[in-house]
Each structure stands twice: as C-alpha cells, then as structure tokens.
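Notebook entry, structure prediction.
Reason for the run: the old model in the group folder had no record of what sequence produced it. Starting over properly, with the input documented here first.
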Amino acid sequence: LYVKWNVRIFDRIAESEQRHFDSIGRQLTLHAIADPALDKKAGEFTDPDLQKIYNDLLAKGVLSLKDALEVGKLVEETDIEDLEKILETETSAVLERVYTSLLNGSLNHLDAFEGYLEIINAQ
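New structure, fully documented this time:
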C-alpha cells in the first residue's frame, strides 16, 4: 500500500513488520519448526484462507487512502487479538518476551493508523 499511496506510515510499518517476521523466523529455526513462508514472496501464503484474506484486504486498500488506513487498522487489531490469546497460555519465557514485543509493536502501529484516520476524518 506504500507503493500505491506513497504515505510514510505504510513504509515505516512494513519495515517494522519485517523485523517482527524475522524475529518469529528465528524462533521457528530455534524450535525446528518448518517455516510456511520459506520460498514465498511478499503477499504469497501457503494457507488458501490466509491468501484470500490478504487478497481481499489488498483489494480494499487500493480503493482509497482511507480504505488503506482502515485495512492497516484491522490488521493490527487482529494481530493484537491473536497475540493476547497466545500470551494467555504461553509458558516459555523467551516466547513470552517475543510475543510481548510483537504486541507492543502492534499497539503502536494501531495508534499510528488511528491517528492518520482521525486526520482524514476531520477533513
């Protein structure tokens, strides 16, 4: 969506998300878990349901800047919900730290998207 809208929030959050992705990738390697993203390009998913969600969100995000920001907000809200569920049962201190860091990042990203949406809605 950064390529479409050239709004810095998308570029900065994409960089942050890549760091999150790499962090989880390290945990997969450490725990000898197969990486479903291995050999996949950005936007390609092994799970067909996840692929459909991605495609649908991308299609919405290219309609308008407001739609793109709403997509970003929805993704972060979903991430937050998922991470909070995981943290309720996580027993590994290392993974708890990783997930907590990801949760804090998603909370910051959500704040950023909501801030941009407030500006757009005020215009």
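Summary: The longest helix spans residues 93-122.
The old model has been moved to the deprecated folder.
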